[in-house]
Amino acid sequence: MSAGDLLHTVTNDNLSAQRVALGRWLVRGSAAILVLVAAAQGAQVAGLRDFGFANWRPTLYAYALWSVCLCWGQVLMRGEQGKRVLFVLPAVLFVLSMAVLPLIFGLGIAFSDWNLASPTGRKFNGLANLAQMWADPFYWNALKNMVWYVLAILPEYAIAFALALLLNAEIRARKFFRVAFLLPLMLSPVAVSWMVGKSMMEIRFGPLARLARWAGWDSPSFFGSPEMARFMIMAMDAWTFIPFMMIMILAGLQAIPREVQEAARVDGASGWRGFWEVTFPLMLPVSLTAILIRIIFKLKLADIIINVTAGGPGGATDSVTSFIFREYRDRSNVGYGTLLAMVYLVLIVIAMTILMKLADRWMRPKY
Amino acid sequence: MAAQIFHDAEVDLAHRARWWSGRVAVYGALAFWALICLFPIYWTVTTSFKMAPDVMKGNMIPFWDYTPKWLGWRSLGLSPDTIGAQSTVRDEFLKRFMNSVITSVSASGLAVILGSLAAYGLSRFSYRFGFMRNSDISFFFLSQLILPPVVLALPFLVLYKELALLDTRIGLVLLYTLTVLPIVIWIMRDQFAGIPTELEEAALVDGLSIWGAFATIVMPIALPGMVAAFILSLVLTWNEYFFAALLTSTHANTLPVMVASQTGSQGISWWSMAALSFAAILPLIVIGVALERFIIKGMAAGAVK
User: Fold this and answer.
1) Same domain, B36 and B108
2) Do A249 and B38 touch (CB under 8 A)?
3) Cα–Cα distance list, A104 to A191, A333, B129, B179 (Å)
4) Residue A2: its pLDDT value, please?
5) Is the pTM of this model over 0.95?
6) Is B268 within 8 Å of A207 when comparing Cβ atoms?
C-alpha cells in the first residue's frame, strides 16, 4: 500500500503461490508468443524462411493477447494493488502502442527516402530530408502562415469574450441564443468549407458576394489575393471555433460570485472600468486556458484549407498540415512528409512549453 | 383629467432612455451573431431544394422567389418519389453514413471507457510506473493533445499498410480513440475529483471491492460527465476528415470524405452537395440542440476549477 492514496483501503490479500505463479506464467507465456510470432515474421521479411504470413496481423494479434494477459496477470500476481493498476494500465498501454511506438517508428521513416508507390521501398538517406526541408520555401511559408493563423486567435478571443458577456447579461431567450451560438462548433469543417467557402462565397451567386457587391465592392473575389484568402480561411475557422472559447469563458463568468461585481459597483467602478478592473483580471486564468487549448486546436488546422483553397493562391493559405497532406498526395513520399511533421512537432513542443511557462507566471497572483 | 402630480425626474427619464438603448444594443448584437451562426445552415437547407437556375440567380426565400424542388434529395435517393425505389446512390450514402456512425460511436465509447478508468485511477490512487508518478502519468496522457494528427498520419499509413488495416473501420476507430482520449481524461479527472472519497470508503466498508464501488457508486454519479465527454468526442470524431481522407479509400470512407469528393465532371451540382452536406451535419445539429447542456458542461469542465 503506497502512501498518498486519496482512497485508503485495507484488504488482506491471501494470494496463493499457485495464483501468483499462474499470473507470472500468463505474462511470460504471452510475451514469449509475441516474441516468437514477431521473430517469425521478421525472418520472413528478411527472406530467411517463408512462414506464409500475408501481413503483420499475426504479430498484432499476439500483441493484443500479450496486453490482455499483462492486465490480467497484474490482478493475479498483485491482488488488490493489481486491481488498482488495472484502472490506468489499459489506457497507458493503448497510448504507448498507438502514439509512442508510431512516433518512434516515424522517426525512422523521417530519415529515409520512401516512396510508397515505387517498388524499391525504403532507403535510409540520413540528413538529406533535413537539407531538402531547409531549402523548401513552401514549408517555411507554411510555418509563417501558422504564425498568422495562431495570431488570429486574439481577435477570436475578443469576440468570444464579448459573446460570453452578452450571454451572461440579463437577457430573455438565453437558451435559444446559447444553442444558436454553439451550433457552428457542431458542423463538420468539410461541410462548412463547401457550403460556406465554396457556395456562399461563390463569386457570381453566393450571398456573401452579393452582400459585398451591395456594400460597394465591385468585383468581389474572396480567394484571389493572398491576404484576402488567408483572412477568409481565418474567418471560417474562427466561425467554427469561437463557440468553443465562448463556452469556456461563459463558464468562467458564471463562476465569478455576484458579490464581487456588486462590491465593485458600490465602490463606484461601473461599466467599462468594472469590466477592466474586476471581471477581466478575475477571468485571466480561464482566458489563458481557453487560449492555450484554442492554440492546440489551431495548430491542427487543415480540413478547411484542404477543401477550400488547397493551399492556394501560391501557398498563401497553406497550414503545415495541409501542406504535408498535399506533399504526400502529389509525390507519395512518406519519408520527407514525416520529417516535416516531426520538425513541426518539435517546434510546437518548444513553443507550447514556453507559452505554458509564461502563462504559469501570469496566472500566479501578484498580490 | 387633473394634471399629473408625480413626475419622473429628468434624471430618471434619461436613465431609462439609456437603459432602453442598452437593451436594443444587446439584443441587436445577439440577433446579429445568431444570424451569422444560423444563416449558413439555412443556406444549406434551402440550397438543397433548389434547381440550377435558382442557384445561379441566388434566390434565397423558398415559395417566395423560387419553388422548392426535390432535386438535391433525389440525387441522394432520399426524395419522396425515390425513397421506395432501389437506389445505388442511396446505398452508397447509407454505407458512408453507417461508417461514420460506427467509427464515431465506437471510438467515443472506447475513449470514454479507457479514459474514465484511467482518470478514476489517477484521481484516487498513487501510482509508480518506473520513474513516472501520478502527475507524470497525467501529463503523459494530456500531452497527447498537443500531438498534431499530421505527425502520426504518415507513420500510421505505413503501419496500417503492413497490418492490413488500411481502409478498415477498426483502424479508424483506434486512431480516433487516440485523438479524443486526452480530452476525455481531462474532463473525467475533473468529474472524479469532485466526488468525495467518503462515498467509496463507505461502500468498501460495506464489503464492495474497488471495482464494485466504482461500478455501483461512482459511475452513476459521474454519468453526466461521462455523457458530456462522450458527446464531445462524438462531435470531434464525426467531423474528422484528415485521417479518414488519408487512411480510407473505398470501404471505410466516412461522410466528410464523401462530401469532399463530390466534384462532378461538369462543375459542382450545388443542390446535391447541399443535400449531402445537410445530411452530414443534421445528426450533430440534432444532438447539439437536444443535448446542449452536456456539451457545455463538458467544455466548461476544464475551464473552471
Assistant:
1) no
2) no
3) 35, 18, 20, 18
4) 46
5) no
6) no
Q: Is B178 an 8 Å CB contact of chain A?
A: yes
Does any CB of chain B come closer than 8 Å to the CB of residue A239? yes
Residue A160 near chain B (CB below 8 Å): no
Closest Cβ opposite residue A179 in set B127, B147, B292? B292
Looking at the structure, do residues B269 and B216 belong to the same domain, yes or no?
Answer: yes
The β-bridge partners of B267 are B264
> d(Cα A23, Cα A79) in Å, to the nearest integer?
10
User: Looking at residue B302, what is its pLDDT?
Assistant: 62
**pLDDT recorded at residue B304:** 58
Give the domain range for residue B169.
88-301
Per-residue pLDDT of A284-330, as tens digits, reads: 888 888 898 899 999 988 888 988 888 778 888 888 999 998 888 88
Question: A247: which chain B residues are within 8 Å (Cβ-Cβ)?
Answer: 295-296, 299-300
**For chain B, how far is it from start to end, CA to CA, in angstroms?**
62
Confidence of residue B101 (pLDDT cuts 50, 70, 90): very high
| Res A367: pLDDT | 53
Same structural domain for residues B55 and B124? no
Pairwise CB contact (< 8 Å): A325 & B246: yes
Same-domain status, B263 and B208: yes
Q: Tell me: do B20 and B104 sit in the same domain.
A: no
Tell me, yes or no, whether B140 and B59 share the same domain.
no
> Where are chain A's structural domains?
17-110, 137-363
Of the candidates B210, B274, B289, the beta carbon closest to that of A179 is on B289
Contact B148, A348 (CB under 8 A): yes
* Domains held by chain B: number: 2
- CA A41 to chain CA centroid, nearest Å: 34
Confidence class for position B303, pLDDT limits 50, 70, 90 = low
The pLDDT of residue B104 is: 94
Alpha helix ranges (H) inside chain B: 10-47, 52-57, 71-74, 88-124, 134-142, 149-163, 169-193, 197-205, 210-213, 219-238, 242-247, 255-260, 270-290, 292-301
Which residue from A253, A249, A226, A250 is spatially nearest to A316, judged by alpha carbons? A226
Pick from A210, A299, A334: CB nearest B158: A334
Do residue B70 and residue B107 come from a single domain? Answer: no
Q: Is B125 on the interface with A (CB under 8 A)?
A: yes
Q: Which of A13, A85, A87 to mutate to test the interface with B (most CBs of B within 10 A)?
A: A87
Residue A354 burial (C-beta neighbours within 10 Å; 0-12, 13-18, 19+): exposed
CATH superfamily of A137-363: MetI-like (1.10.3720.10)
* Assigned domain for B293 exists: yes
Q: How confident is the model at residue B114 (pLDDT cuts 50, 70, 90)?
A: very high
Q: Could you tell me if B261 and B212 are in contact, meaning their C-beta atoms sit under 8 angstroms apart?
A: no
What's the CATH number where B216 sits? Answer: 1.10.3720.10
pLDDT tens digit string along A126-135? 788 888 888 8
Residues of chain A whose pLDDT is less than 50?
A: 1-3
Residue with cell 500500500: A1
Instruction: Say yes or no: B290 contacts chain A, CB-CB below 8 A.
Output: no
Query: Does residue B81 lie in a domain region?
Result: no
| B2: closest CA of chain A, how far (Å) | 38
Per-residue pLDDT for B205 more than 90? no
B80 in a structural domain: no
User: By three-state DSSP, how is residue A122 classified?
Assistant: strand
The chain B residue lying nearest A163, using CA atoms, is B30
Whether B227 has its CB under 8 Å from any CB of chain A: the answer is: no
With respect to residue B54, please indicate whether it lies within any of the assigned structural domains.
yes
Tell which of B49, B74, B99 closes a domain. B74
Note whether B42 and B141 are same-domain residues. Answer: no
